[in-house]
Amino acid sequence: MPRETEASSNLVARMSVSLPEELLAALDGMVETRGFASRSQAIGDMLHQSLQEHRRELGRDVMVGTITLFYDNTVTGLQKKLADLQSENIDEVISSLHVHLMGNQTLEVILVQGPPPELQRIADEMITLRGVLSGRMHLIAAIIPQLHPLSKRKPKAPRKVRHRR
Fold it and tell me: What contacts 147, CB < 8 A, 6 or more positions away?
């Protein structure tokens, strides 16, 4: 039965889980190592991640996430190809950040939003380019709110410019 916790107004439900002793010991070790406040918090985190992956596999819900690329920036044309792919997918690519690392290497993080299959297609196109050393996409079941809704926007009247003499 759901009950309200003191820490938040979110409703929580209790459940009981039976685990083999070895798995429970491993869980307790992870709780301590990672600094979770409790087993419940650790299990909640794992369930959240698993449910996100399940939702991603299901299909068409819009999700937000990142495509992280690690690449050799001396490969001719690679940075242009990456920029072109981002431009071609402007509806899904929100922004990107790249950091030049030691040894002619670059770390690029691209913020994306859209249906998971479409985002996976974009990630695959980027990750498989010659010169990309590694890449990964990470999605979560959330969306970025629209900053400037078109339907509510009123055109501004032109401002009169005064010229001083």
Answer: none
**Residue 34 CA to its chain's centroid (Å):** 21
* Mean model confidence pLDDT for the chain: 85
Nearest to 32 by CA among 52, 24, 50: 24
CA dihedral 32, 35, 38, 41 (to 10 degrees): -130
Report which secondary-structure segment, H or E, holds 96. Answer: strand 93-101
Instruction: Give the tens place of pLDDT for each residue, 104-141.
Output: 999 999 999 999 999 999 999 999 999 999 999 998 88
pTM over 0.85: no
Sign of CA dihedral 66, 70, 72, 73: positive
- Quick check: 75 and 19 in contact, CB under 8 A? no
* Residue 160 burial class via C-beta count within 10 angstroms: exposed 0-12, middle 13-18, buried 19 and up: exposed
Token pair 């990107």 is found at: 96
